[in-house]
């Protein structure tokens, strides 16, 4: 019987059937807005995002994110993103992180891009958070690379 239980322990642990310490894995959804700029031209940008942060020990976390952002100018369309973020908890309520994603074309004559950036998220109470984030867009094909700064307000669950 002991051998059977020992051989089942890894399977039970992976399925969550054994007692484990409480973790703060959390989902989140947010609305955000800011500015995107390139070669002296600035435009407003707005969007939404959803993600899930998995605990990697007591202070580190990482997780996936999906987004939909639009440059608020005629002739643009919604750019969809798939990526993630990883970082550390700076306090009970704060997170500092690096983020990256793949973004679809924001207009018919534009190109897709990869992004890399960093941000800070601060919890306000038990479920609400605010964040500020910088992203650099790597476009390629001889096209200049824009940058953006956004602020967001979201709900954690």
Explain the overall architecture.
With 157 residues, the protein is mainly β. The chain has one domain (24-156): Porin (Beta Barrel). 8% of the residues lie in helices and 61% in strands. It has one helix at residues 2-14; strands at residues 26-38, 41-56, 60-71, 79-89, 94-103, 113-124, 128-138, 147-156.
Which radius of gyration do the C-alpha atoms yield?
19 Å
| Apparent shape | elongated
Main sheet properties:
8 strands, antiparallel, barrel
Structural classification: mainly beta
Q: Which segments are poorly predicted (pLDDT under 50) over 5 or more consecutive residues? A: 1-22
Give the CATH architecture: Beta Barrel
The CATH class is Mainly Beta
**Widest β-sheet, arrangement of strands:** 1-2-3-4-5-6-7-8
Q: What is the CATH third-level topology name?
A: Porin
Tally of contiguous helical segments: 1
